[in-house]
């Protein structure tokens, strides 16, 4: 039986529909596919040629392209296209040339003519407010060895921007072991692992018993860490309740109630500065950063690292008024999730989306000790893709 061809990214793709017919358009510069589910897709010849898995185009060992775009034909045209016995698209670029075969599931997933985004591991963010009383919570006993448990936890993390593990124990260093299940950690001036406990001569308000308003960490960095992990080893101190605010919900809350403030929060550039004795990190940024489509991609909210504002003279008062609106929204109980850390709990936070804070605690009443570390959003997405690839491969082998 003829097998389906490999794909340029070597993933295992389901075939949600069969290719029913293929036709050429624009003198062979475009192919149109008709699918069994009614979808119609269009692919440019140059795009297909660039993404071919032909050994002359792709190193099958390294999975990297071997042909630069400058070496591709300037005006490739399809002279032959058909559906082969395995259901793959077979394309020939010129008479006598070899056939290039394309996996139908891969084509369906990468159908840019219908707005497909194949780089997305299929997780749709869900905004939340105080009606979500606690983070999505999973048993942490198997998370270090069971990929099925890991994938379920990471999907919830990617969806809500926060997820919790319980029962991971209280061994120091566990937070790094969990973070390493996603990929490389981010080392900062606070070290590979940082200790969130009352310290003498603290270098941050986090290392005191003070209350911390909802904030994101390290807004002083050009590349603000994408993920934060906090593991509770000891907590018998009175107070210290955790406060979480979803930045997506906060942005929508402000936009609906004060469009002018929202516009200023997305355009006025504030400076964050660490003001430490041995480091001097600073960065200019809007409070809410949007992508080209106007969707929220990042928040930087750190009241205690705010440096003097430098903006247009006539904009200063309106800028402060808009910042007040954002901080008041973060303090609104209707947007806040609150819970207490228990020894053995580990909470993962999307540091560019979810604001975290705490109530003050009483160090005289007992000890409070959390260990934390940072990683990046792309490590989460990469691990989800790998886990999905492995799962699909196992499912396919079992059939």
Question: Short description, anyone?
Answer:
This protein is of the alpha+beta class and 399 residues long. It has eight helices and 24 strands. Helix 5 (247-257) crosses helix 7 and helix 6 (259-265) packs across helix 7 (316-330).
How many β-strand stretches? 24
The CATH homologous superfamily of the largest domain is named Clavaminate synthase-like
The SS-based structural class is alpha+beta
CATH fold node name of the largest domain: Double-stranded beta-helix
Determine and state the CATH class of the largest domain: Alpha Beta
Q: In terms of per-residue confidence, which ranges show pLDDT below 50 for 5 or more consecutive residues?
A: none
Task: Work out the helicity level.
Answer: 10-25%
Number of helices: 8
CATH architecture of the largest domain: 4-Layer Sandwich
Main beta-sheet strand count, sense and barrel state? 6 strands, mixed
Strand content: 25-35%
Mean pLDDT level:
91
């Amino acid at each position: 039986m003829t097998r389906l061809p490999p794909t340029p990214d070597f993933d295992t793709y389901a075939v949600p529909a069969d290719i029913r017919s293929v036709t050429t358009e624009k003198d062979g510069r475009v192919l149109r596919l008709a699918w069994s589910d009614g979808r119609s897709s269009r692919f440019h010849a140059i795009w297909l040629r660039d993404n071919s898995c032909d050994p002359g185009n792709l190193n099958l060992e390294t999975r990297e392209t071997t042909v630069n775009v400058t070496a591709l034909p300037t005006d490739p045209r399809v002279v032959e296209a058909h559906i082969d016995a395995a259901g793959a698209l077979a394309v020939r670029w010129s008479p006598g040339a070899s056939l290039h075969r394309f996996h139908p599931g891969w084509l369906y997933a990468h159908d840019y003519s219908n707005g497909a985004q194949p780089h997305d591991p299929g997780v749709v963010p869900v905004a939340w407010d105080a009606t979500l009383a606690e983070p999505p919570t999973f048993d942490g006993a198997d998370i270090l060895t069971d990929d099925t448990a890991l994938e379920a936890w990471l999907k919830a993390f990617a969806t809500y921007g926060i997820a919790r593990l319980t029962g991971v124990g209280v061994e120091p260093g566990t937070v790094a072991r969990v973070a390493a299940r996603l990929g490389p950690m981010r080392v900062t001036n606070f070290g590979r692992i940082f200790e969130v406990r009352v310290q003498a001569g603290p270098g941050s308000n986090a290392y005191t018993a003070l209350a911390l308003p909802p904030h994101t960490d390290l807004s002083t960095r050009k590349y603000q860490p994408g993920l934060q992990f906090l593991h509770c080893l000891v907590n018998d101190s009175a107070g210290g309740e955790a406060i979480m605010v979803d930045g997506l919900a906060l942005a929508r809350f402000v936009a609906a109630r004060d469009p002018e403030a929202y516009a200023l929060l997305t355009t006025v550039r504030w400076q964050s500065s660490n003001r430490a004795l041995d480091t001097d990190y600073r960065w200019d940024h809007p409070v809410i950063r949007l992508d080209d489509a106007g969707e929220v991609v990042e928040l930087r909210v750190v009241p205690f690292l705010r440096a003097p504002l430098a903006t247009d003279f006539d904009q200063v008062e309106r800028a402060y008024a808009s910042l007040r609106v954002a901080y008041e929204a973060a303090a609104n109980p209707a947007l806040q999730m609150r819970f207490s850390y228990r020894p053995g709990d580990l909470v993962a936070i999307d540091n560019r989306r979810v604001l975290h804070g705490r109530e003050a605690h009483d160090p005289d009443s007992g000890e409070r000790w959390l260990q934390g570390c940072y990683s990046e959003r792309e490590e989460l997405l990469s691990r989800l893709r790998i886990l999905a690839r492995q799962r699909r491969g196992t499912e396919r082998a079992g059939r």
